[in-house]
Amino acid sequence: MTTRTPGQDPASAPSTASGPSNGATPSTAPGPDHPSELTAAVLDGSVLSPGTPARTAVFEAVGADPDGPVTRELLALARHVSPAVRRTVLTLLGELTHGRTPWPAPVEAAGARLHDPDPDVRRAAARLLVRTGAADRARTALGELTDPVTRIALADALLGTPGTSCPPGPLRTDPLPEIRLLGCLEELATAPREQWPELDAQTLAEVTALTAHDADRGYSVGSRWGRALYRQEREADCYATAPRLLAGDAGAYGRRVGVQLAHRAFQEWRAAPDTLAPHLVRLLPTAPPDLRTLVVHALCASRTATRRSADALAALLPDPTTAPAADPAGPGAGPFDAVAWEVTYALATTGDPRAAPYVHALLTAGARPPGMLAALRGLLRAGAADTGQLAAYARTLLRSDTGDARSLALGVLDALDPAAAAPCVPDLLTALRNACETAEARGAALATWPELSLVGTLGRIGPPAAAAVPLLTTLTRDSRRRPGHGALALARITGDRAPLETYLRTHPPEGRRPTADHSALFQWLLDHGGLDPEQSARLRGAVLGRGGAMQVRGSLVLWRNEGPPVAAELLAVLPDYLDDDLFGPVAMTTLAAMGPHARPALPHLRALIDRRTRLPLHAGSEDADLRADEQLLEAAERTAAALTGGDGR
């Protein structure tokens, strides 16, 4: 039973809204016992999962008729007795309004739920009200309502949504300290220098007076503070403020804000991990569990901070002989909880061998937490992984019937040397036959991803995979993603140039279309007898003709084939890729191979290295952007050292 707050409107009975039965029998018609597909997807929350059929159908239906039956069904569900269902509906309505001209239905749903008995529903309603463009109505509600939860959520949404015309100044005198703090932080981001001392003092005073902050449920106070300091280019002030907060100058909640501020600083400034990680590490021995979790998350977000705090992080890991829970979807409970896995992942990906016992213990237990492949690759690069155990683990995964298990197995095998991976050839062959049968049953014209991955792995194993040759010779489906993958696998296994030469001869350049990435094919031919004049000319045209994958990945092959005469042409294109987290390291590998001939690229490398702030990348999350920037910086420093003999000049 939902708890109802006095003076607020009660939740209605469960919705039984549905579309017409279309002649369905009473036993299968939509209703309380047989909800419609939309209602069922809302009830279980799957409608919020990208790519689900129900979600796609909702977006298509609302796009065709914003006030049609689907919207009416959602509005009925917004009055469902379950708070979780009401939150789901409001969240979905907010997503439906993105990029779409606002229409009245979501606005009315949001306004009605501002008085919901569930606080999280009220928060969702406040966000939806602002997101639907009803900023005037949200400002009015902020001035009239008395419920702190709703008012804080309204202020949070108004200040965080562009174009809402909500001046932060008046909020600095609001009766609620949380709203005063939000107003301070928003004004701090744009205030002139002479106002900084006053705003800094009030911000610190408001944080000190709080024991928690309702707005932390979304974009944390520390992150907001860090964003404001970043927008004003106040790096030194950030490095002075965070240690004060971490030392307890603003109380227990201030410490939490300090961790958030340090984490945000890691994401914005390159010097932050070296500067602030030692202050975070000092908290680990005595911090309460929830604060320690935040500290670990901040330290593990940065490769630099992980290395600086590796000893302290490793000390947090449980006894590796303790068997973890065998949860294939995650690290499980008990000694290998989420925090322990976060530490293990961070140490492993930076090549710290102390992570190896924990990774192998998880493998033995059958656990496959997210990031396992990256952790294994990090340990393999450091020579800290048991290759025999990994090969046996891959064989077990290959015998599974799930695509995720197969992908992890192939990722592991691709990271092993051919000799270590060779025992898996029989299992790879079985998996490839099954994948081919599935593709043929579907009538696939191009190689499916399972086929492509399995063929590629067999090719990388090379001669030990000779048993695969009869099957590989029967495969005719090519791939746009990896063109010529079958011919390349045959060449790698047999050592025969003929499959690749035939493939290139029968697949001429593609005219005006983007150049296919044939770099691996040309590289193998170059390493096994060299390129003939026709192949050399085609390689040159593919690399220098158009930008893209072939240009950057084929540049090293072209350099090795032609040498110094092509240096100027490569230097005209490769610097354009240096700040790309996907292609930058590949381009730098070519520059390093060019040695002194690539010295004209040093100004580009130094410009990347000398940045104080992070590169504007799009790797999937702010922490992923942070790590991608660190990896690009590491690669740039190695490349500059290679070009200068290590003297940096």
TrEMBL record:
Domain of life from the UniProt record: Bacteria
Biased composition range(s): Low complexity: 10-24
Region of interest (Disordered), residue spans: 1-38
Coiled coil: none
Species the sequence originates in: Streptomyces bugieae
Gene3D superfamilies per record: Leucine-rich Repeat Variant
InterPro entries hit by this protein: ARM-like (IPR011989), ARM-type_fold (IPR016024)
Signal sequence annotation: none
Name the UniProt record assigns to this protein: HEAT repeat domain-containing protein
